[in-house]
Amino acid sequence: MITTVLTIIALATVLLVYAAVSLGTFTGGNVTVGGVTSGTIEYNTAISTSGWTTTLTPSGSWYAELVTSGNTYVGAVTISWQLQSDATGSWVAVGSPLVTSGVSLVAGTNTIYASTNGLLADVFDWSSIATTGAA
pLDDT tens digit string along 88-104? Predict the structure, then answer.
């Protein structure tokens, strides 16, 4: 059985986000960061503005986004997305980190896609690194 986690670290705000994966079902974790009331990691099997959910059982391509709300922090952040595996009983990085830069949080709600620029058009397909049942 393989458990995988997607960890996001927003360097500018010391943000840690975990998305636990168990048997190919991905569950988005909660986000806690100074100046952000709440946030979650969400997944989709399509590059679309709709259909994002905190749980995903991928059958092909899959994508990730970070959604925050209640922001009082406004400013630039850099996010490092790192897929990790718990297949051996301890967390091990899988693939290279994907760095999102040039993103500025605004007051209220923010949606940041796992891409180099945070935009949906360039969202990264994580199935190139991990798929259901992948080692």
Answer: 888 888 888 888 888 88
Name the domain count of the chain. 1
Dig out the tokens for 70 from the structure. 């209640």
Give the amino acid at 65: E
Enclosing domain of residue 11: 3-128
Cα dihedral: 37, 118, 4, 16 (round 10): -40
| pTM (predicted TM-score) | 0.71
List the one residue out of 54, 76, 56, 61 whose CA is nearest residue 123.
61
The answer to whether the CB of 4 falls within 8 A of the CB of 41 is: no
Does a structural domain hold residue 133? no
Strand, helix or coil for residue 46 = coil
